[in-house]
Amino acid sequence: VQLQAYGGGLVQAGGSLRLSCEDPGRAFSNLAIAWFRQAPGKEREFVAATTWNGGYTYYADSVKGRFSISRDNTKSMVYLQMNSLKPEDTAVYYCAPRVAAERPGFDSWGQGTLVTVSS
User: Fold this and answer.
1) Highest mean pLDDT, choosing among 11-15, 96-100, 103-107, 110-114
2) Is the Cβ–Cβ distance between 95 and 109 less than 8 Å?
3) Which of 5, 11, 27, 58 is the most exposed place for a label (fewest CB within 10 A)?
4) Exposed / middle / buried, residue 40 (Cβ in 10 Å: 0-12, 13-18, 19+)
5) Which distant-in-sequence residues (6+ apart) come within 8 Å of 70 by Cβ?
């Protein structure tokens, strides 16, 4: 079962968006979940991650201080609050179990959600 990301859209630089990641099969509540993104013409990159209970969070340097990841295991949801958005944050955002997604050959990305930040 793939995780499903949604909540993207078009926003002006400096604006905010909150992305949601749904676990429809309720299969990943005991796993670390991460957000990744892929900008046009670039490789997919790590954005943020949370441990299974939300006790620890991790961020790419490029988003530290602007993005915040959280999760609600009672709802099987993971969120990415994105503030102070920049044009370079424009990308398709995906969520996935972190450990599996960081292994070579992982291809269960599920649907992503497009975030476009205009200058």
Assistant:
1) 11-15
2) no
3) 27
4) exposed
5) 50, 54, 57, 78, 79, 81
Cα 79 to Cα 66: distance, rounded to the nearest angstrom: 14
Q: For residue 87, give the nearest of 63, 55, 119, 44 by alpha carbon.
A: 119
Lowest mean pLDDT among 44-48, 51-55, 87-91: 51-55
What is the distance of C-alpha 79 from the center of its chain? 7
> Read out DSSP for 46-108?
EEEEE-TTSS-EEE-TTTTTTEEEEEETTTTEEEEEE-S--GGG-EEEEEEEHHHHTSTT---
Bridge partners, residue 77, by sequence: 22, 72
